[in-house]
Design goal:
The structure is a single chain. The chain is of the alpha/beta class and about 160 residues long. The chain has one domain: Metalloproteases ("zincins"), catalytic domain (Collagenase (Catalytic Domain)). It is about 50% helix and about 25% strand. It has a 5-stranded mixed β-sheet with strand order 1-2-3-5-4, sandwiched between helices. Helix 2 packs across helix 6, helix 4 crosses helix 5 and helix 5 packs across helix 6. The radius of gyration is 14 Å and the shape is globular. The N and C termini lie far apart (about 35 Å).
Length: about 160
C-alpha cells in the first residue's frame, strides 16, 4: 500500500509470517502501515520510500538475532537497512516478545507494536541509541511520532 505522508510517499509491505499476530493484535497490518506513515512524516522525509515489515515469531527472530548480531535470544524488533535511498529495508518483529513486553509494561499490544515499528523505521533512517545523545534524539522523535498517533510516551 502506498500513501502520501506530507511530502513523502510510503509503500509498506507487511508480511504475516506468524498467523497468531491476527489473534494477539487484531489489525496488526493496519497498525504497522499507520505507524510507518507517521514515522516518515514525523522524520520530515520527502520523496518515495518503501520498506518491508515481517510479523514473525520468537523462533525466527531468535535465529536472525543469533546469525546477524551474535545474540542467541529473541528480541522485539530487528531492522535491516538496505543502503538504498528509496528502499529503506526490512523490519522483523517477534510476536511473543512484543506481547510479553506489552503485558509487563502494562501497554496495549497495538500501542507497543506501533512503538516498535516507529523505533525500527528510525533505525532504517539512520537513527540509533548507542550514545546518550543519540538515544535522547531518537527517543524524542519516537515520542513526537507516537503522540501524533495518540499513544502515550513509552519511556515514562
Amino acid at each position: 500500500m502506498t500513501r502520501a505522508t506530507g511530502n513523502a510517499r510510503v509503500s509498506c509491505t507487511v508480511i504475516l509470517l506468524d498467523r497468531a499476530w491476527s489473534r494477539s493484535t487484531p489489525g496488526a497490518e493496519r497498525i504497522v502501515r499507520k505507524a510507518a506513515r507517521a514515522t516518515l512524516a514525523g522524520a520530515r522525509r520527502t520523496g518515495r520510500y518503501s520498506l518491508n515489515v515481517a510479523l514473525a515469531d520468537d523462533g525466527l527472530v531468535r535465529s536472525l538475532n543469533a546469525r546477524d548480531r551474535g545474540k542467541d535470544k529473541p528480541t522485539n524488533v530487528l531492522s535491516y537497512r538496505s543502503g538504498e535511498k528509496a528502499f529503506l529495508g526490512d523490519i522483523v518483529l517477534a510476536r511473543q516478545t512484543v506481547q510479553c513486553e506489552a503485558r509487563q509494561q502494562k501497554k496495549a499490544p497495538a500501542d507497543h507494536l506501533s512503538h516498535l515499528v516507529v523505533h525500527g523505521i528510525l533505525h532504517l533512517l539512520g537513527y540509533d541509541h548507542e550514545t546518550e545523545t543519540d538515544a535522547a534524539r531518537m527517543e524524542a522523535l519516537e515520542r513526537r511520532v507516537l503522540a501524533k498517533l495518540g499513544i502515550a510516551d513509552p519511556y515514562s
